[in-house]
């Protein structure tokens, strides 16, 4: 048994600069035993310590290619789960604050998805022959396991179009969860009529749909969304375009269909960063994704004369990821430097095995 861990109480009260100094000291003690991953949405005072940065999948893959014993994931819970599933058995995935969840991922639970599957079966018969379950990577490991078990697959905002093709090549319908917006935008780009993409409300019997709607549907979209990306409105784009008629608008597909349709480019965090980085000097950009990413990009693009603005007038960050602050990071790293593992994210073996099937299917086709 490991010795008692150092309590967080003493870290909670640390001033920011003290926390920063202790992060640096603990990292020096740990050397390459720990790799520190930061998602694009991570706050600047934590992001500055990253060994690796990227989207959730890229980070999990890169971490598994290192020999680091500890994978310290500065992101949200589902990301650390993916890191645990894809990493070597000897590696330990850690989330510095266990309260850093994803509100979108929380909108779908295994119990509700199982009920949905049962009800779809009552209407359609044999759901495992007629519907491919597709889960966005922003979901709990047990939902990825559900997809692994039922011939389904995981997708990211980068590979969603390829994954939908894979899903439809196997079965006639798709159940897409938990983000209705990514599902709708991806289906829309494939030319699927909007009336054949119906919203499944998990709090209503049969999703609130008639048997006819279920029979006619190509994609059943789970009623889930991201609270950050739902803030963006077509009106924000319209106003900005008046001031910047030669500017470009780029949005994440977790934004509404109307926002995506009014954007010049739509894609994942990696896509947004790569597109703006590769753009001509002195161009103007309006960006519909999380604020920390947009602010960082604005600073990085300034020397090239590119302006990068945030789409919403209100401050909206990924408030759950924001919980990974310098105090939690210092606490985590000091414990690790003492050989004490805190906040390990461990997906149960059976669940991890099934989730891995759905992740491997995705990796094989994208
Ligand atoms: O998968 C990710 O990292 C997320 C949450 C978004 C994206 O587009 O990269
Ligand atoms: Fe989840 Fe939204 Fe945060 Fe992304 S920005 S991690 S979808 S809550």
Automatic annotation (TrEMBL):
Pathway: Cofactor biosynthesis; NAD(+) biosynthesis; quinolinate from iminoaspartate: step 1/1. Iminosuccinate binds at residues 39, 56, 136-138, 157, 252-254, 269. Binds 1 [4Fe-4S] cluster per subunit. One of its GO terms (biological process) is 'de novo' NAD+ biosynthetic process from L-aspartate. It is an enzyme of class 2 (transferase). It is found in: Cytoplasm. It catalyses: iminosuccinate + dihydroxyacetone phosphate = quinolinate + phosphate + 2 H2O + H(+). The keyword Cytoplasm applies. Its main location: cytoplasm. Its cofactor is [4Fe-4S] cluster. InterPro entries: NadA, NadA_sf, Quinolinate_synth_A_type3. Its EC number is 2.5.1.72. GO terms for cellular component: cytosol. The keyword Coiled coil does not apply. GO terms for molecular function: 4 iron, 4 sulfur cluster binding; metal ion binding; quinolinate synthetase A activity. It comes from the Bacteria. HAMAP family: NadA_type3. Catalyzes the condensation of iminoaspartate with dihydroxyacetone phosphate to form quinolinate. This is Quinolinate synthase. The gene is nadA.
């Amino acid at each position: 048994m490991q010795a008692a861990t150092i309590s967080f109480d003493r870290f909670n009260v640390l001033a920011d600069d003290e926390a920063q100094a202790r992060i640096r000291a603990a990292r020096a003690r740990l050397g390459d035993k720990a790799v520190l991953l930061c998602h694009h949405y991570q706050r600047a005072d934590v992001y500055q310590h990253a060994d690796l940065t990227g989207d959730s999948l890229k980070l999990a893959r890169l971490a598994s290619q290192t020999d680091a014993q500890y994978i310290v994931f500065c992101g949200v819970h589902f990301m650390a789960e993916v890191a645990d599933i894809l990493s070597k058995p000897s590696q330990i995935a850690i989330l510095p604050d266990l309260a850093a969840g994803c509100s979108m991922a929380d909108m779908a639970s295994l119990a509700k998805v199982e009920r949905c599957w049962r009800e779809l079966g009552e209407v359609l018969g044999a759901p495992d022959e007629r519907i491919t379950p597709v889960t966005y990577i922003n979901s709990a490991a047990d939902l990825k396991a559900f997809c692994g078990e039922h011939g389904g697959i995981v997708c990211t905002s980068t590979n969603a179009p390829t994954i939908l093709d894979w899903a439809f090549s196997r079965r006639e319908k798709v159940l897409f969860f938990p983000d209705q917006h990514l599902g709708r935008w991806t289906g829309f780009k494939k030319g699927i009529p909007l009336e054949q993409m119906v919203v499944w409300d998990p709090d209503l019997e049969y999703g609130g749909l008639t048997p006819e709607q279920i029979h006619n549907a190509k994609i059943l979209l789970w009623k889930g969304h991201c609270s950050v990306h739902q803030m963006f409105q077509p009106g924000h784009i319209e106003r900005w375009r008046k001031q910047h008629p030669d500017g470009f608008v780029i949005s994440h597909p977790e934004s509404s269909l109307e926002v995506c349709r009014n954007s010049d480019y739509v894609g994942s965090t990696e896509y947004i960063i790569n597109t703006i980085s590769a753009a001509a000097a002195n161009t103007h950009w309006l960006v519909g994704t999380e604020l920390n990413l947009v602010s960082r990009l604005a600073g990085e693009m300034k020397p090239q004369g590119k302006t990068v603005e945030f789409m919403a007038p209100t401050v909206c960050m990924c408030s759950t990821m924001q919980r990974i602050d310098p105090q939690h990071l210092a606490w985590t790293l000091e414990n690790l430097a003492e050989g004490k593992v805190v906040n390990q994210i461990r997906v149960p073996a059976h669940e991890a095995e099934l989730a891995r099937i759905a992740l491997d299917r995705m990796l094989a086709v994208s």
